[in-house]
Amino acid sequence: MTDVGGIRVTGGSYPASIWSRFMTAALADLPAVGFAQPNPKLLPKATYLRLKGEKVSKSTKHGSSTRTGRRTTATTRP
User: What is the pLDDT along the chain (78 residues), one digit of tens a residue?
Assistant: First the structure.
């Protein structure tokens, strides 16, 4: 959607605002509940995107790389 209220509508604009208002009202009378710490053994290995043909260096092992417009591939971090 374009030019709705003077903005281009994306998921983070009007839809997010509407959802936030709805859930705030729906949960207003309920207590806040914390989350239990997840078991790290059950979490999948982290991955990051790197450029196809990019050599893995110290900086790319930690998730930082430069973008040159080339195709990216997902790589599992060691």
Answer: 777 778 788 888 889 999 999 999 999 999 999 999 999 999 998 888 878 877 776 654 554 444 445 555 555 545
Distance CA 28, CA 35 (A): 18
The token pair at 23 is 């859930």
Q: What CA–CA distances, in Å, run from 52 to 14, 15, 47, 56, 78?
A: 36, 35, 15, 11, 17
Would the pTM count as exceeding 0.70? no
Contacts of 45 (CB under 8 A, 6+ apart): 76, 77
